[in-house]
Design a protein that fits this description.
Layout: H1 6-25, H2 32-39, H3 43-49, H4 53-68, H5 71-74, H6 82-99, H7 102-114, H8 118-144, H9 153-172, H10 180-195
């Protein structure tokens, strides 16, 4: 496990506080003073790392990925089938949903601002491209190992991402509609079964 240095600890404290404030108040209504108060750090310390509210918000997009879904990148998947890896991903998403719901609310805030700001849009695009690349790697593994049909991995990766993001609309905003675990498992099972070779 990586040992964080003093700078990383301070930045993580600021970013964690910023998460909560941006989610609670929205980007427009958030001030740096709000983040100072929530982080319990001095304004000077925050401006030492982030020159503006927007700079901090952009950093938050990178932080969102590594803070929210570290197991996407750290778990050893070598001895697992592609289907098992995809199911592991839904388990990670569910765990994050149950323990850090603000992560999903933050994503909605990213979407909202991306429509108005090209820097946020570009930064978000890089994040989603990394996730799509990860899903494509898993799908290509399934094709190589003859578990999956010869599919358009880019399109199926987009379907996986869209399905996972559906948790925002169908579970987060209307938690009475369907259980999040049932939604994620059923969605992933449908996708896996649609690309699996017969008899596998």
């Amino acid at each position: 496990m990586k040992i964080l240095d003093k700078k990383e600890i301070a930045q993580n404290k600021i970013l964690d506080a910023a998460y909560e404030v941006f989610v609670g108040k929205g980007y427009s209504d958030t001030t740096m003073d709000d983040i100072v108060k929530k982080s319990e750090m001095s304004k000077g310390a925050i401006y030492h790392y982030y020159s503006s509210k927007k700079d901090l918000f952009l950093a938050l997009i990178d932080h969102w990925e590594t803070y929210s879904f570290p197991d996407f990148y750290t778990k050893n998947k070598k001895n697992k089938s592609a289907s098992e890896i995809l199911k592991d991903i839904t388990d990670v998403v569910y765990d994050v949903y149950m323990t850090k719901k603000h992560v999903f609310l933050a994503e909605v805030e990213f979407w909202s601002l991306a429509n108005k700001d090209n820097e946020v849009k570009d930064k978000s695009k890089v994040l989603y491209e990394k996730l799509l690349f990860l899903f494509e790697l898993v799908l290509k593994k399934g094709i190589r190992e003859k578990e999956f049909k010869d599919i358009n991995t880019k399109v199926v990766a987009m379907s996986i991402l869209s399905s996972i993001q559906g948790i925002n609309w169908f579970c987060l905003f209307d938690d009475s509609t369907v259980d999040a675990k049932l939604y994620l498992d059923t969605s992933m099972d449908l996708l896996i079964n649609s690309v699996k070779r017969k008899g596998f």
